[in-house]
Every structure is written in structure tokens, then in C-alpha cells.
Predict the 3D structure of the following.
Amino acid sequence: MEKKNYKRTLVTTALPYANGPVHIGHLAGVYVPADIYTRYLRLKGEDVIMIGGSDEHGVPITIKAQKEGVTPQDIVDRYHNIIKDSMQGLGISFDIYGRTTSATHRVTASDFFKKLYDKGEFIEKTSMQFYDEEADQWLADRYIMGTCPHCGNERAYGDQCEACGRDLNATDLINPHSTITGNTPVLRETKHWYMPLDKWEPRLRQWILEGHKEWKSNVYGQCKSWLDGGLQPRAVTRDLNWGIPVPIEGAEGKVLYVWFDAPIGYISNTKDLLPDSWEKYWKDPDTRIIHFIGKDNIVFHCLIFPAMLMAEGSYQLPENVPANEFLNLEGDKISTSRNWAVWLHEYLEEFPGKEDVLRYVLTANAPETKDNDFTWRDFQARNNNELVAILGNFVNRAIVLTHKYFDGVIPTAHELTDYDHQTINEFKDVKATLSENIETFHFREALKDAMNLARIGNKYLADTEPWKLAKTDMTRVETIMNIALQIAANLAIAFEPFLPFSAAKLRGMLGMPDVRWDKLGDIDILAAGNKVEKPVLLFEKIDDSVVEAQMARLERIKQENIIKNFQPKAVAEPCTFDDFAKLDIRVGTVLECEKVKKADKLLKFTIDDGLKGRTIVSGIAKWYQPEELVGKQVCFIANFPPKTLKGIESQGMILSAEDADGRLVVIGPTGPVKPGVQVG
């Protein structure tokens, strides 16, 4: 497909739900890539705007409000500000960060629906939906809970079972009940308006599968899968009291479905930013529209929203939708409900001045075509071994040596050697690949290109050894340090899209008032005779204790989730007191404890039972070290028949309880008692 030269670019970023803060998964998937791309276009002097905002309607917000006993507006006001402030703190450079509760959005979304309605683009359908008679309201899927028909989980929601992961319809649930009142809901007939996506399937197929084969493979593949499966009509309204009212007669108590409402937020936020010229960014063929999203939004931005725009008739379709996959955390899927996340606002508080470290690590690990993983050890290693040891080290050496030998004055370059020319040509070549990788949304590779400039600089200083030449040939040292400082200036340009805070700090040290992308690769960015400021470290090492504290926090969260989600086993079949009385349960003191050879799970106990003493073998080696148990008192069953395990005769059974995480905990008295006393 022939590449078109556009006059301007509109960048949009997925609207996060305003029912919680943003985490590193959101950042790696959407906001950091979008910011890199936008900053790059600005450096090139192009006409570009980046539109963001909060998605403030939908059931997740009403559920959050209900749990906290506040209004949905209270929830969205709180989290919109948290999200907006934390995004700004990380340097995500929106031209506007709006919201879908704005007056502009309400009018824009209503008018959009009304135009499609008046054109006859919707179909009306009636269906059966659950209703809570006591609460006197319709129940969205997330307000219905019951038993999963597939795995038996008794806490499955009406849209999905979180235990087995199966998608559900609310009517699939066994013994459904309302999460509002606990009552059994009734089925009632309700009317809704549907977008006939099947009508637009041929045009979508042509537009994507034939016209945009250059899209990322994960995006193109998901679109093809949906299209090959056949698109179906999709409801654009729902029965809910939070959202934008459906603007037609006979639709009282109904609102626009959030999937229909939210993408129109891009348009309404652009209107708020540019009330007099917004249309040229949405309706002019000379505008390139790029949607940055996560993979869970591909179907909405590649199929559904474009179908809406096609039906409306006056808007341009997106040129590209570079969706990323998911970022996991320490090998486990990020989950807001389980608090398994690194929250941006908390990171900014706990790691002041390290905004660029997070931006760097998230870009280096970006899940561009498949899921990737964030670990705190990798975070530490990339900071210490790359940002500190490569980029920071070169910049610091170049400026320190300039102050040492020339009092901070940029020296003049004299006659260049073949090696100087070789180095200059090498870093000049980086510009083309760096630009190409950013423009094709390969941000991980682009970051490597930028870091390669610092590697070139480090190698140049290491090979030329100006500290040795300073004893015999200061003219040569002047040339070397001029070239080293020009490389540092190139780094300030190359890293501006990725590490804006560090790039600004570097520009300040080098006396660079502004930067332009077209200067990248030049060797005369800094004028000889100008001064550079005293060096300030761009990055600092992160100690083991810092990441260990973060890992310990995650481990606490994991244990809390295990306990919170623990469901006790059903009570066993009834037994009589006589059955229980047959067990001779006693207290003994552990005299000796050792691991059983060639048996990872077994410990051998020597027990003072108040009589002759006894040996018991127990399978708890996974949870205890032998020395932990010596001297402790434990409960054991004394009248089990002996059993030989690994050649050892075990004369009883030590009692233990299985905790929520599967860990076995030895049971014993809360205070000292005489060995041999019976329990009963």
C-alpha cells in the first residue's frame, strides 16, 4: 500500500475506566507508546495532537459506588483526578485529558446516536433480562451471581466465571441471585436498539483485510478472526440509571451502552480542545488518525467504532491501531480486583525522580506482539546495567572530562582521524533506523537504537583514552572531547521521546535550549566556546533492599488474596461421639527432628509422649525446617497402628491444619502441658 503524506496526525489513547487508578499494564500497553510516538512527531515539527480522557460510564463504576456507599459521580470525580495527575507525573503529554461526563460529551454522544437513529441505522429488538423486584431495577450481568454450570463455582458472575474463565450469559447461572438484594431475580421483557454490524461486515473486511495488511500481526489476526466468524448485531443501549440517556421517546430509563458512548469521547475531547477547528482532525482526508489501545479493545476500535463512523458518514477512519498485548507482573496476570499491580500514583510517590526509569523498563519490555512480564529484578537490572552503566556513565564521563581539562568550555574539533570519521558515521546511521522503528510502532527496537548511541560514545572514549593523551597531546584531546559532547547532544535528541525528564536534564547540562529531530546525527549541535554545566547524575543505582521491599509487598498481597478467596471444604459426613472417642489424641514434646533421606516431604520426629517415647514420620518437610520444631509441643494420634515409611516405623500421626494457601500448620496446645495428656 502506497504511503500517504498527511498534513496532520490525531493520536488517541484508550480511555481508562474511572473506577480505579492506572497501573503499569495500562502504561506499557497504551500510554507510554502513544507518548513516544507523539513526542517524536512534535520533535519533527509535525502538526499532531494527543487526545486522552477518562471513561466514566458503565457498570464497573456503579458497582464501585455501591460498595463504597457513594454516588457514581463521586467515584469518577475521585479517580479521574488521580489518573490525570499521575499521567502528568509520568510525562504523558496529552494535549487534553478530558472526561465522558462533560457537557460537551453528553451532547456529542447524544447527537451521534440521534443521527444514526434518524438514518435508520439501528434495529429494535426485545429480549428477556433479569429484574430485581425489590430494588426495582434491571440487573446488568455484573449484578447477578450464581453457580457456574461448568465448574460449580458458587460466586460466578452473569458474564463470566472468574474461577474457570468461561464466558457466560446470566441465564446460564444455576440459582442466580441479585447482588443488590440477594433475591432471586425474575425475567422480564425489555426493548433495546442494536447496531447491525453484519451490515458493515463486507466494507470492514475490504478496509482491513485488503487495505491494511501493514497492521500489526496481533491486530490484523484478531480482526480477521472476528470477521471470519461473522459479525452480529450488538446492543447500543441498556437499562441502567448511570450514563447518557437515550435521546428518543420511549427510551426512558435507558442509557447509551458504554462501548458506544466511550469512543465518541475522543471526538468530544477534541471539541473541548479545539472548538473551532476540531473537524479538520476528524473529517479531513489529510489527517492521519492513530488509536493506541490494548488488545482487549481491538474489536471496539477496529470493527465497532469504524462501523459507527461508516454509518454516520462524515468521519475519517483510523489509519492504524497499534494495539499491544498484556503485561504481566512477576509471572502472574495483572488484576485490579486482586490488587496485583504496580499502581502509577504509588510508584511516583515511592520512586521520586525515577519517572524515566519506569518509562524505560516498560518500553524495553513492551508487549508489542505477545504478552510480556514485568519483574522488579529486571527493573533493577535495566536501571543499574543500562541506564546507569551505559547512558549515565557516558554522559557523566564526557562532562566531567570537559570540566577537568577545559573548565567546562566546549573545545574546538581539529583534524579528524579515520577512527573519528568511523565513529561519526556510525552514530549518523542510527537516525534512519530509529525513525523507521518509531514510525512503524516498534518502540522496543527504537529504544535499543537510542541506547546504541550511548554505547558508541562509551566505546569512543574507551578507545581514544583522552585522559592518557592529556599528558602529551591536548590538541587531540580537544577533538575527542568535542566529538564526545556532540554524541551527548545527539543523545538528548534521541531520548527525548522515551526519557523526557532525563533528556531535559541533559539539555540543561549541555546548554541546549531546544531540540529538533532533524539535527539528530549532526556533529555541530554544540558550538565550541560555549560552556557546559557541572555534571549531575542522570540516574542512580537501585539497591537490592528497594526491590526486595516491593517483592515482599507483592508476596503479602498474594497471601491476602489466598486467604480472602479461601472457601472451606464442605463439612464431612456426620459421625457420633463414640466414633470420635475411639481416637486417642495426645500432646507430646518434640525431642529430635530430622529429614528422612531420599524423601523430600518427610520428617522423622522423636516424641516424648509421657510414656516410653515414640517415633513418628510426618509429611510436612516442605513447610518446616527440622530445627524449628525441636522443643515444640504437638498433638498426635497415639492409637493408629504402626506404619513403615522409608524403612522407619511411624507410631502415630501428628495433627496439622491445611491453610488457605495449602501450607500445613502443626497443631499444638497454646501453653505448656505435661507430655502424654489426652485431648478431648
